[in-house]
């Protein structure tokens, strides 16, 4: 079964052009399922995996406290895998056809309020050291563009177009999108690059580097954002993705069209963006206080 999974992963990376992070997610999902059917039912032959085994695996995941969203991702990975096996005539029947994905509870995305964002950028200084400049530029890029953590890590100097005032981002499925940026952000990026180049003689082509001049990695980005938000913001969640939600929420609350937000975020469908149509509690309070005669 491992060989089939490896071949599928190679297909995803070489033919479907999926990113390394996406391929790793598929690998983890499929390896988890393969381990379960082997240890629970002693199944080594993929052709013996049935709907019963898949359903049992899903029930086990949910009994162990996995969220519906995470379970659905694993189901999606398995669907893609068995679709590939059918196409390659490796299996005759698809055990995923009758699998029903658990419903995901609808909830508003967590985000940082405008007040906390203002306090945040007032409280962290650009500084003259590379580490200080990097912290500031990471926070500024994530909030000002709404890009994903993986997209931030993949940025190169060439992705920043100072003349056209825009940044080219490579998103999911290696799809490129263009994000317009402000003069203020470009000025800060120029200053950051100057400090970075003074700090490292021989450097990588990536825009953001570690303390040793190597490419940034996901955990480092998380740690930078988490430390800043823990000390400044009141939100319970402190991950880089919160700044993406914050970007989109602030855009929506300031009247940006949903299609515009969709394009800026790089969403494949409008459905993923519609969560930002819900007004924030701050906006609701403001409208209520200005509009209701008894407020």
List the SSEs and their pairings.
Blueprint: H1 2-14, H2 20-41, H3 51-63, H4 68-87, H5 114-123, H6 130-145, H7 149-153, E1 160-161, E2 166-170, E3 176-180, H8 183-199, H9 218-232, H10 240-253, H11 258-265, H12 281-291
Antiparallel strand pairs: 1-2, 2-3
Helix pairs in contact: 1-2, 2-4, 6-8, 6-10
Explain the overall architecture.
The protein is mainly α. The chain has 2 domains: 2-87, DNA polymerase, domain 1, CATH 1.10.150; 114-287, hpI Integrase, Chain A. It is built from 12 helices and 3 strands, in the order αααααααβββααααα. The protein has helices at 2-14, 20-41, 51-63, 68-87, 114-123, 130-145, 149-153, 183-199, 218-232, 240-253, 258-265, 281-291; strands at 160-161, 166-170, 176-180. The protein has a 3-stranded antiparallel β-sheet with strand order 1-2-3, with no helix packed on it. Strand 2 and strand 3 form a beta hairpin. Helix 2 (20-41) packs across helix 4 (68-87), helix 6 packs antiparallel against helix 8 and helix 6 (130-145) packs across helix 10 (240-253). The model has no long low-confidence stretch (mean pLDDT 91).
């Amino acid at each position: 079964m491992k060989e089939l999974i490896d071949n599928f992963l190679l297909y995803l990376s070489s033919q479907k052009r999926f990113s390394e992070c996406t391929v790793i997610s598929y690998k983890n999902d499929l390896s988890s399922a393969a381990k379960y059917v082997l240890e629970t039912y002693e199944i080594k032959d993929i052709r013996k995996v049935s709907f019963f085994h898949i359903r049992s695996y899903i029930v086990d995941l949910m009994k162990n406290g996995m969220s519906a969203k995470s379970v659905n991702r694993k189901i999606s990975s398995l669907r893609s895998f068995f679709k590939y096996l059918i196409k390659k005539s490796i299996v005759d029947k698809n055990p995923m056809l009758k699998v029903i994905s658990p419903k995901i509870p609808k909830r508003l995305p967590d985000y940082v309020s405008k007040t906390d964002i203002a306090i945040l950028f007032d409280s962290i200084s650009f500084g003259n050291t590379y580490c200080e400049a990097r912290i500031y530029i990471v926070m500024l890029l994530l909030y000002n563009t709404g890009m994903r953590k993986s997209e931030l890590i993949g940025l190169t100097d060439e992705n920043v177009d100072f003349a056209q005032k825009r940044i080219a981002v490579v998103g999911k499925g290696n799809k490129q999108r263009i994000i317009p940026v402000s003069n203020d952000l470009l000025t800060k990026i120029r200053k950051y690059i100057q400090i970075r180049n003074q700090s490292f003689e021989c450097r990588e082509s990536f825009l953001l580097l570690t303390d040793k001049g190597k490419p940034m990695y996901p955990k480092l980005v998380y740690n930078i954002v988490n430390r800043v938000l823990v000390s400044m913001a009141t939100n319970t969640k402190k991950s880089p993705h919160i700044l993406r939600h914050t970007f989109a929420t602030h855009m929506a609350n300031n009247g940006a069209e949903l299609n515009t937000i969709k394009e800026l975020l790089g969403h494949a469908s409008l459905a993923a963006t519609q969560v930002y149509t819900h007004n924030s509690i701050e906006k609701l309070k403001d409208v209520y206080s200005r509009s209701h005669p008894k407020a």
